[in-house]
Specification:
A hairpin with an 8-residue loop joins β7 and β8. The chain contains 11 helices and 11 strands. The protein has 356 residues and is α/β, with parallel strands linked by helices. It is elongated and about 135 Å long.
């Protein structure tokens, strides 16, 4: 006979050992009961009100926001505060408030020789017997000074300004393609966008007006007149950087470059030296530093031997070995010193020529 609590046929094979074991895993604790959406009426309530056996309980209200909702609110508040902070403390000026680059000012002073231009069989001999004997070759003659941070610019920003200035000097004064009257794009890409129209106008419509003089932007010879006899251009000079205000760095470059030239297409002709003294003033705002560009504020160039009668705005037309410029001014200008020529044309000092 089956025991109490057992099915008449006994416990099914493979089933739980009893009713108690079958529901042992189901726990109806107090919180579970209180949370039930349906609640059974008492016997008295059912008799009195003829109510149904159960009634629906109102949903329990949470005491506060869940942890996930609270975290979400905090994250939104932090993101909103960060956006406001970055809007106020953005390191770059608003484009509407930025200063535009001023037009570059440029002066080119030709230096006429007092006598015939000395020449020689090779460039090395002329360099050895000239004031450029101790100059370095090409970019080696443009060493960078030590970069130190300023009140408002980091050491990296100062170094960036110096490096960009050096790149401009190299591309505009030592690049054989530029020197030969070729493409000028390598120089153009280094300029602040505000000066590109002035640069382009200078080469489309050259003028001796202090604003649109191609030889103020770069050094280039008339390819129909002269060519390099030696690619090793001799250079000497210095770079200096200062902070002009809280948003601007200024770099001043002062270099003398000496070129060995000969008549175009005549490899057997005598070689002569041509000297260019360039004083360039560069300016950088924070956008220029970030984009590795520069503003050319002013360019002051002395170059010779040249004829004062020749137009030196578009191309330099050197007086080569054996040529002369006729009479010149009594006083000579030496491009190897810091003296500035005060006239539109000066006389090349005899000590600036090689002794041959």
């Amino acid at each position: 006979m089956a025991g109490l609590g057992e099915p008449p046929g006994g416990t099914p094979e493979g089933g739980p050992g009893g009713g108690e074991d079958e529901y042992r895993s189901v726990v109806f604790d107090e919180s579970f009961v209180r949370a039930a959406r349906l609640q059974e009426f008492s016997a008295q309530e059912r008799i009195t009100d003829h109510a149904p056996a159960v009634r629906r309980r109102p949903a329990l209200r949470r005491a506060g926001l869940s942890r996930q909702a609270l975290i979400l609110v905090v994250l939104i508040a932090v993101a909103f505060g960060t956006a406001i902070y970055m809007g106020v403390r953005h390191p770059y000026q608003d484009p509407a408030g930025q200063r535009t680059a001023a037009p570059a000012r440029m002066t080119v002073v030709p230096l006429a020789p007092g006598d015939r231009v000395p020449g020689g069989g090779n460039a090395a001999f002329l360099f050895e017997h000239s004031p450029a004997a101790q100059f370095r070759s090409a970019a080696d003659g443009i060493p960078l000074p030590g970069a130190r941070r300023t009140a408002h610019f980091s050491e990296d920003q100062v170094l960036n300004a110096l490096t960009t200035a050096k790149n401009y000097i190299v591309r505009s004064g030592l690049d054989p393609e530029v020197l030969g009257g070729g493409a000028v794009r390598s120089v153009r890409v280094l300029l602040d966008p505000d000066q590109l129209s002035q640069f382009d106008e200078s080469f489309e419509s050259p003028a001796v007006d202090g604003r649109h003089t191609p030889t103020g932007w770069l050094v280039r010879f008339d390819p129909a007149d002269a060519e390099l006899a030696d690619p090793e251009i001799r250079v000497d000079g210095s770079l200096r950087v200062v902070e002009s205000d809280a948003s601007t760095l200024d770099v001043t470059a002062d270099h003398t470059m000496v070129y060995a030239l000969r008549p175009a297409g005549d490899a057997r002709a005598e070689v002569s030296l041509f000297t260019v003294r360039r004083e360039l003033h560069f300016r950088y705002d924070r956008d220029d530093l970030r984009l590795h560009q520069t503003q050319l504020v002013a360019s002051y160039v002395q170059a010779g031997p040249l004829s004062c009668a020749e137009d030196s705005a578009n191309h330099l037309r050197p007086l080569l070995a054996g040529r002369s410029a006729g009479s010149g001014t009594p006083a000579g200008t030496d491009p190897y010193t810091s003296d500035n020529a005060t006239a539109l044309c000066g006389t090349l000092a005899s000590r600036a020529q090689p002794k041959v």
